[in-house]
Amino acid sequence: MQNLGTLQITGLGLELFHTQSNTCFEIPQNYPVIRIGKSNEQVPIDIDVLDLPSADIVSRVHAEIIVEANTYYLIDLGSSNGTFLNDKKLESRTRYPLQLGDRIDLGYDKKVTFIFQYKQQSKHAAIVQTNQPTTIQHQGINNTQQVQLVDGKSKFVGLTLMVVGVLIFAANTRIGIGVGISTILLLIGGVVILLQRRINRNWGWVLIGLGTALIVFSGRLFASFNLLAVLLSASLIFAGYKLFKTGKVFGYGFNSLKGRKD
């Protein structure tokens, strides 16, 4: 958190960042009192949350920010569902100093959450001379995070390639296994432990490893592989997996290939 003692001197703008909708509410400068709530005819509201999701849990005049001697304070105005500062419920009509990066929740269950911060357009260029760090970190917020969507065609082709790869590998592999009762018990015991949540899963892997070692080192495993088929199936499975997950293989997808042909 960063002290706000020099903010008015440097002229930096402040805002409340609504995390559920990625909406910014500018805190008016030179206002001694900034009221937060829902627009009504009785009391003027400076930060109106009426159109935000879950606004029904917010009181008409829920809280206010007071500026005094270059210090910002948050006050709950007797709201129905309470005001929380960094998960701590505020006592009604009591001042609590604000710091950059503080999280403000209007009501329970973190449905209406704000981050007290610099204005987005100026926070990277601003330089404040204080004895405390100037970097503001917001936990759990990433405005630049993007979700990569994979089209249905790429998923279908990717899944088909993986299935074909598995079939080619299975059709060109000959395996014979002679397994004793002790080996079967070890393998079954390992699988059972892996399915249990109360037992350390590492013991399951240990039992499976011992069973596998008995098969390999007892000379009861013999197998023959077609090397070309193995390489082909591995390539198909890899390409199919990449298409299914990302829609591209080595940076190429159906859209990029289509663009080259055009």
Class of the largest domain, according to the CATH hierarchy? Mainly Beta
Beta-strand percentage range = 15-25%
Low-confidence stretches at least 5 residues in length (pLDDT < 50)?
5-11, 122-148
| Architecture (CATH level 2) name of the largest domain | Sandwich
The ordered H/E elements are HEEEEEEEEEEEHEHHEHH
Could you give a short account of the major beta sheet? 6 strands, antiparallel
Number of folding domains?
A: 2
Mean pLDDT: 76
Distance between the termini: 54 Å
Which strand order spans the largest sheet, edge to edge or round the barrel? 2-1-11-10-7-8
Shape from CA axes? elongated
The radius of gyration over CA amounts to 31 Å
What is the number of helical segments per DSSP (H or I, 4+ residues)?
6
**CATH topology heading of the largest domain:** Tumour Suppressor Smad4
Q: What's the oligomerization state?
A: single chain
Question: Considering DSSP H and I runs of 4 or more, what fraction of the residues is helical?
Answer: 25-40%
The tally of beta strands, per DSSP, is 13
Alpha-beta content class: alpha+beta
